[in-house]
Design goal:
single chain; 734 residues; 6-stranded parallel beta sheet; globular; DNA damage; nucleotide-binding; helicase activity
């Protein structure tokens, strides 16, 4: 195939041969020349610098740059033939043993002391020494007879910077490097889709230069410029998608829902037993203005646990009801939906009891729709929703089912939006004749760059002030393995709080036997050899017989029948239970001001943001809160450092940044929801904040001039390729 014929869409089998192409496809999901060019190196080893062999973990699949120090041949004990042991080092004292079985004298000649090479395999340990058994390798420099020492492969590493690719056992890094060279030498350089004015303004190298230098860098400076250009393309594609979406949404019609003086909202404000914080008033004014416009509001309301988001949302719902519409609040669990129902009824009082004897003038009805409603109750509730008598409708995903019809849905509030898939949110919006106004709420603080990248099409409001009356929360790590006495003290501390008239939570990562549900913490990826996570159904009886003997203990998890869950929560909220042993079903929204202490067992099994959310369940009243994070993680381990960080601050935004550092960037763009690999290969939402900000500014300017990118067809095609159909749909549905 000539260079004129080969493009980024050319199948790899036409360029590198069918066998290699099949391996690249099956092991690395690489099918075309373009796929391979965007399979960028994970890191670069530098001649004269060492790989830190001492940092390698047993069980890890690695590629190391090392120098042969010595070889030794000895007969095998159990079978005929010899064993060749090759010791390689990294120049810093770290060594690794390579073992080859069978009579392979040519390898001994090949692997002479002093030779440098790349060695790939799985790290094992034998008699205290780390080793690679039968590793693949390529030697750097001339000579050698090994299968990986062919001259065309060595040529890949002629430069000072040696690319090391994300690889597989069947496709080592040097095979990828050889294939990349073939593609670079064969494929016609792509036309650069980025407008020349943007390239010049932002000092970006051309796309062809970037792709060549990312794989075969001529210098560190050239590599930096190549990475910067490819990061820009990723950021720009996402920002263009979001800015276009925001532009289209602004053009859609929506029914204005202006405030009505003397209506439900004014009556509600008059009966509130406390004063709104300044933040609640300011955010409320922003939302009120949005609701009064002829275009749909699309706003994200974020605020720390207990910052008063529910009251802000309720005031928005009342404004819509005053304007003749209905508002729906979608909650992720029945426990939370039921709690919202109780809480809103309490806040509204006679204003939420239309049709009852003690109802106020202009009152509305508040309906709860969940999957566990009985047939008669369901028919009655759906009738109220359909007729419009229910101005406020609360529920779980049961609100999305066919047969739940609204008279005039004007506002959709999504609580803890990260717990819902895009299809669920979209299904509720589709129940309105015109696009409804949308308010999504989260108590998980979102770093600025994530808000800009994932929620870039939403206006963002933040409640940073806690209402008066909230108490401080102290957090401590309890190292159960190192200091068992500390765990005994934790249980005594819980009993002291109960004796003082307060209540407590004990949180476990697992329900018990059976399939893992959404509320259970998944085992970490490195969970080999560890005991199973502690389970609610196993821990509760042990506590009742042991350290919490004599206390009134309740159990709460997602597999309980809905009426039983509701009864347990009512008992706990009413003070009839001292201790609630639960899963993360209590993570969001559960509000029991008398609960002052939480003990999280196997705390290292939870994420940073999740622990912060859980901790927010205590300290909600006048008494200070205490959160004890029990772990067997050893001091100095990453898990222990994570828990120490949680214990050291209650600043949710700092913890959100830490959480982002420890997660795959692809999760942020919804890769977990689409099931596809991330397109953020190089861009870091933490480290590249300035670049993301600049890309957004350029995207806004370009979309204002050319909303559909009709004058930039190559750029539109590039955006479509980088933000694939699934990802665009994820961003589109928001």
């Amino acid at each position: 195939m000539t260079s004129e014929q080969a493009t980024g869409d050319t199948p790899l089998k036409k360029l590198v041969g069918e066998k290699t192409a099949k391996a690249l496809a099956s092991h690395l999901d690489l099918h075309t020349a373009g796929d391979l060019l965007y399979h960028v190196p994970r890191r670069y080893d530098e001649r004269g610098e060492h790989t830190d062999i001492r940092s390698l973990d047993v069980g890890e699949q690695v590629t190391v740059l090392a120098q042969v120090q010595r070889t030794a041949v000895r007969p095998m004990r159990q079978r005929r033939g010899n064993l060749l042991e090759v010791t390689v080092g990294d120049g810093s004292g770290g060594t690794l043993t390579l073992t080859f079985f069978g009579n392979q004298a040519w390898r001994e000649r090949d692997l002479r002391p002093g030779r440098w090479g790349l060695f790939a395999g799985k790290v094992t340990e034998f008699r205290g020494k780390r080793q690679l058994n039968g590793p693949e390798y390529v030697l750097l420099g001339s000579g050698g007879e090994g299968e990986a020492a062919a001259s065309e492969e060595v040529e890949e590493f002629a430069g000072a910077l040696i690319p090391v690719y994300p690889a597989a056992a069947a496709v080592p890094t040097w095979v990828i490097a050889r294939c990349v060279r073939v593609v670079l030498d064969t494929v016609t350089p792509p036309d650069d889709p980025l407008p020349a004015t943007v390239r010049a303004t932002r000092n970006l190298v051309g796309l062809d230069t970037a792709l060549r230098e990312i794989h075969r860098p001529s210098s560190k400076e050239a590599l930096y410029r190549a990475r910067r250009r490819l990061k820009w393309d990723e950021a720009f594609a996402v920002q263009l998608t979001l800015v276009q979406r925001k532009h289209r949404a602004a053009a859609r019609p929506a029914r204005p829902r202006p405030a009505a003086p003397g209506g439900l909202l004014d009556a509600f404000d008059a009966r509130l037993p406390y004063e709104l914080t300044r933040g609640q008033r300011d955010v409320g004014a922003e939302i009120a203005t949005d609701l009064a416009t002829a275009h749909p509001m699309h706003r994200l309301l974020q605020g720390e646990v207990g910052s008063g988001k529910t009251v802000v949302a309720l005031r928005a719902m009342l404004q819509v009801v005053d304007a003749g519409g209905q508002a729906a609040l979608l909650a992720p669990t029945e426990v939370l939906a039921a709690q919202h129902h109780r809480g809103i009824l309490d806040l509204l009082g006679p204003l939420g009891r239309a049709g009852e004897l003690d109802a106020a003038d202009h009152a509305t009805r508040v309906e709860l729709v969940t999957g566990s409603l009985g047939a008669a109750a369901r028919r009655r509730a759906l009738g109220e929703v359909r007729s419009g008598a229910a101005g406020i409708v609360l529920g779980t995903h049961a609100l999305l089912y066919e047969g739940v019809d609204f008279a005039d849905l004007g506002l959709v509030v999504v609580d803890e939006q990260h717990r819902f898939g895009v299809e669920q949110r979209d299904a509720l919006r589709a129940k309105a004749e015109q696009p409804p106004h949308v308010l999504v709420m989260t108590a998980t603080p979102i770093p600025r760059t994530v808000a800009m990248t994932v929620y870039g099409d939403l206006e963002v409001s933040t409640l940073s002030q806690l209402p008066r009356g909230r108490s401080p929360i102290a957090s401590h790590v309890v190292p159960a393995a190192d200091k068992p006495a500390f765990l005994d003290r934790a249980w005594r501390r819980l009993r002291e709080e109960v004796a003082a008239g307060h209540q407590a939570y004990v949180v476990c990562p697992r329900i018990g036997e059976g399939p893992v549900s959404d509320e259970e913490a998944p085992p970490p990826e490195d969970d080999t050899g560890r005991r199973p996570p502690l389970a609610v159904t196993e821990v509760a009886p042990l506590l009742a017989e042991g350290p919490l003997h004599g206390l009134r203990i309740g159990v709460l998890h997602g597999r309980l029948p809905a009426d039983e869950k509701d009864a347990v929560m009512r008992s706990f909220a009413g003070g009839d239970l001292d201790v609630l042993v639960a899963t993360t079903v209590v993570e969001v929204g559960v509000d029991v001001p008398n609960a002052t202490v939480m003990i999280v067992l196997d705390a290292d099994r939870f994420g940073v943001s999740q622990l912060h959310q859980l901790r927010g369940r205590v300290g909600r009243g006048a008494a200070p809160g205490l959160c004890l994070l029990v772990t067997e993680a050893t001091e100095g381990s990453p898990a222990r450092e994570r828990l120490d960080a949680v214990a050291s601050t209650t600043d949710g935004f700092k913890l959100a940044e830490l959480d982002l550092e420890q997660r795959r960037e692809g999760d942020v763009l919804g890769a977990t929801q689409s099931g596809r690999r991330s397109h953020l290969r190089l861009l870091s939402l933490l480290r590249d904040a300035d670049l993301i900000r600049d890309a957004r500014a350029e995207a806004i300017a370009l979309v204002e001039e050319d909303p559909d990118l009709s004058r930039h067809p190559a750029l539109a095609a590039s955006v479509a390729a980088l933000v694939d159909a699934d990802r665009a749909e994820y961003l589109e549905k928001g």
